[in-house]
């Protein structure tokens, strides 16, 4: 058997050529464009969510820090800050500083309210400490509120 010679096939005029039509190419490009746009939209949304979560986490850490500072104070009522009446303190805080560390990018306030708590028989249970931080970023106000009870059995007391 002799090998068959490889000749280019000649097709008669008017027969379709194998390949993609213009409609198929346009549909493929449209689907690719939708995929690219949705990918960029998802990346932008995830980036924005991560920034918001970072701001919320930093603000929560500042409020918790103020709460822990009060918890570490020696509990000896009626000495300050654990008085027989409600005691309120205001602190100016910031959760982001510029690269130089000199300008506050997101200033806010932390308000700490310390109020005495008694049971139904009038026996003093301790003091309820409520710390509320308010920070405004990109037009959105984040309010974080944390509470704890401080008494002679709290951590760090003698």
List keywords for this structure.
158 residues; alpha+beta; 4-stranded antiparallel β-sheet; 1 helix
Give a structural overview.
It is a single chain. This protein is α+β, with helices and mostly antiparallel strands and 158 residues long. It has one domain (22-150). It is built from one helix and four strands; from the N terminus they run αββββ. The chain has one helix at 22-71; strands at 87-94, 107-118, 124-137, 140-150. The chain has a four-stranded antiparallel beta sheet with strand order 1-2-3-4, with helices on one face. It starts with 21 loop residues before the first helix and ends in an 8-residue tail after the last strand.
Mean pLDDT rating: 86
Which sequence of SSEs, written as H and E, runs from N to C? HEEEE
Which range best describes the helical content: under 10%, 10-25%, 25-40%, 40-55%, 55-70% or over 70%? 25-40%
Distance between the termini: 106 Å
Biggest β-sheet strands, sense, barrel: 4 strands, antiparallel
Gyration radius, rounded: 34 Å
Helix/strand structural class: alpha+beta
Query: Low-confidence spans: pLDDT under 50, at least 5 residues?
Result: none
- Any idea how many domains? 1
Q: How many separate helices?
A: 1
How many β-strands, per DSSP? 4
Strand content range: 25-35%
**Going across the major beta sheet, what is the strand order?**
1-2-3-4
Dominant shape = rod-shaped
């Amino acid at each position: 058997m002799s090998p068959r010679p490889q000749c280019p096939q000649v097709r008669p005029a008017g027969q379709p050529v194998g390949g993609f039509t213009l409609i198929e190419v346009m549909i493929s490009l449209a689907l690719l464009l939708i995929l690219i746009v949705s990918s960029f939209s998802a990346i932008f949304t995830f980036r924005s969510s991560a920034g918001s979560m970072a701001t919320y986490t930093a603000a929560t850490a500042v409020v918790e820090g103020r709460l822990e500072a009060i918890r570490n104070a020696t509990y000896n009522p009626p000495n300050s800050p654990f008085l027989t009446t409600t005691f309120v303190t205001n602190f100016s805080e910031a959760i982001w500083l510029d690269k130089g560390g000199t300008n506050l990018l997101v200033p806010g306030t932390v308000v700490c309210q310390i109020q005495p708590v008694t049971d139904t028989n009038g026996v003093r249970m301790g003091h309820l400490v409520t710390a509320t931080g308010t920070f405004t970023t990109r037009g959105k106000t984040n309010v974080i509120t944390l509470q704890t009870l401080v008494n002679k059995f709290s951590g760090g007391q003698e």
